[in-house]
Fold this sequence. Notes:
Blueprint (H helix, E strand, L loop, with lengths): L1 H15 L15 E4 L5 E4 L4 E4 L1 H8 L9 E6 L5 E4 L5 E8 L2 E9 L10 E5 L2 E6 L2 E6 L2 E5 L4
Antiparallel strand pairs: 1-4, 2-3, 4-5, 5-6, 6-7, 8-9, 9-10, 10-11
Amino acid sequence: xxxxxxxxxxxxxxxxxxxxxxxxxxxxxxxxxxxxxxxxxxxxxxxxxxxxxxxxxxxxxxxxxxxxxxxxxxxxxxxxxxxxxxxxxxxxxxxxxxxxxxxxxxxxxxxxxxxxxxxxxxxxxxxxxxxxxxxxxxxxxxxxxxxxxxx
Length: 151
């Protein structure tokens, strides 16, 4: 009996361990600019992403219909986090995929007073670079990593 336990116990435990494929890189090389439809939905066909953005616009602006005729700027970092913002937003929202939903991981405050004009994202591993006006800010899913001086 002891022989049986010593022989099969490691096999049983190894079958219960999870499979990990690494390294993995989930980054999108460039941002996607997605227009919201009349219901607040966005659909990014190239990277197979779609969701309703109405709650995001409500969170940012306090207006339940502010998504009408607005674009969202979206990029995904190498860890799989989605960075989302839009023109006149004061924040960058960081989401992760969670059982068929996008769950808010972090809300990064960029501006206290005025929203960003014409924001854009760039991949700058290990950062996501946020560009608006003459400012560039390096972001991670945890927040602002380092600010670069205005040019």
